[in-house]
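Sanity check

After download, print the first record. It should look like this:
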Amino acid sequence: MRDIVTIPFSEGDSLIIACDNSGAIGMKEQDHVHISYDTVAYYAFRVSVMECIAAGGEPVSVLLHNFCGNEPWDQLVSGIEKGLSELKFSDVRITGSTESNFQLLQSAIGLMVLGKKSSAKITDLAFTKHLKIAVIGLPLVGNEVIELNDQVAPLAIFHEVSLIKGAMLWPVGSKGILYELNQMFPNEMITQERVVTTVDIIKSAGPSTCFIVCFQPDQEEIIRKITGELLYTIEIRK
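Expected structure tokens:
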């Protein structure tokens, strides 16, 4: 099951709602990870927009819930705009609200991406022995996201892969690759022993620093061309 809500609103279209949050990450003294607020918002947006796109949604709006205070608002919006720019989305509106009555001791934000999906668009595949599976990028968390940024799957690459007809994309979250594989194929009962790959399949991927892509054998060449050295193959044994 994907981490989104799908609400049909017409005969041919549905509303896709994806969200993420961030706590104790920012520029307050008691934050556990100290990074700029534009970076905080960028990665929260990244998670939400990847979930939306992977579910077949075309983003139309971003909603920001800011508990960091009034001052960081512009920086937070700047981080969202950076993500939109990487995706080349110029007509996505940003709105939101700030908690200004009380000051929290730690930074916190919530972020939602709303998207529109055509009901005709198919985003899931059945598991077969011929299906190719790969993870793009590495699972990273905390300061690793900044220090090993060249191993984070870029939004632009994620979007380009999402345009390949028939490919199935699945962002990896804090529960790791193995958990997501079982969400993708719940009837397979995939165990750690069945998975052959060079990537840590248990480790948290933080703000979706990597994603899983499933595709047909004849699509492998184009996917390797797009993803380059960020592609790591996954084999699921019987």
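If your output differs, re-run the checksum step. Summary of this record's structure: The two ends are 22 Å apart (CA to CA).
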